[in-house]
Design goal:
The complex is a heterodimer of chains A (about 110) and B (about 110).
Chain A: E1 5-7, E2 10-13, E3 19-24, E4 31-38, E5 42-50, E6 53-56, E7 65-71, E8 74-79, E9 88-95, E10 102-103, E11 107-111
Parallel strand pairs in A: 2-11
Antiparallel strand pairs in A: 1-3, 3-8, 4-5, 4-9, 5-6, 7-8, 9-10, 9-11
Chain B: E1 4-7, E2 10-14, E3 19-25, E4 32-38, E5 45-51, E6 56-59, E7 62-67, E8 72-77, E9 86-93, E10 101-103, E11 107-112
Classes of the chains: A mainly beta (about 110), B mainly beta (about 110).
Chain lengths: ~110, ~110
């Protein structure tokens, strides 16, 4: 079991560019969560899915952020256009119930 | 929404001593309280959790206590070792009420030799 897989692990981009972060959850886990971590704001839940359906996206900061889960084995978080304040570590986490959350290694995003 | 406060923000102890980190929450209906450990540059990892129908849970050197009346829960680490050095986050989940997971602000624990 490889655990939650995220790609890329590091992303450096310029302001205004589109950024797509990817996540492959553990097989059998029907909950998937996207988090953002910064020094200033700590760990923030952005959105979560249950059985591929978005349940709560109230943590998504603004319309520039969108997330999809087209199937049980893949999810994306997209930022378009990106801004320097989006620089953070983005974690994907999964679980077979809401209480269990196994985090992926994270994607460190730097927007210049 | 739920509000979680975590104290202290930094904690330094001598190897072998105990460490205690405390979190308070605002929503009395919250019912699941996990603790995560995050080493530098790594992912948060669940180390112990407790549900609202239990007052205490222990796993080797780690224990968590919950006081529902006072709305606080604590992480206790005994016989601390250098590898316990990390950032520890408490979290609160209100299942059935939007399932919002709210994290505390974290405690940087340093175990000194």
């Amino acid at each position: 079991d490889a655990g939650v897989i995220q790609s890329p692990r590091h992303e450096v981009t310029e302001m205004g560019q589109e950024v797509t972060l990817r996540c492959k959850p553990i097989s059998g886990h029907d909950y998937l969560f996207w988090y953002r971590q910064t020094m200033m704001r700590g760990l923030e839940l952005l959105i979560y899915f249950n059985n591929n359906v978005p349940i709560d996206d109230s943590g998504m900061p603004e319309d520039r952020f969108s997330a999809k889960m087209p199937n049980a084995s893949f999810s994306t978080l997209k930022i378009q256009p990106s801004e320097p304040r989006d620089s953070a570590v983005y974690f994907c986490a999964g679980g077979s119930s809401y209480n269990e959350q196994f985090f992926g290694p994270g994607t460190r995003l730097t927007v210049l | 929404g739920e509000n979680v406060e975590q104290h202290p923000s930094t904690l330094s102890v001598q190897e072998g001593d105990s460490a205690v980190i405390k979190c308070t929450y605002s929503d009395s209906a919250s019912n699941y309280f996990p603790w995560y450990k995050q080493e530098l540059g790594k992912r948060p990892q669940l180390i112990i959790d407790i549900r609202s129908n239990v007052g205490e849970k222990k796993d080797q050197r780690i224990a968590v206590t919950l006081n529902k009346t006072a709305k606080h829960f604590s992480l206790h680490i005994t016989e601390t070792q250098p590898e316990d050095s990390a950032v520890y986050f408490c979290a609160v989940i209100l299942t059935g009420g939007g399932n919002k997971l709210t994290f505390g602000t974290g405690t940087q624990l340093k175990v000194e030799l």
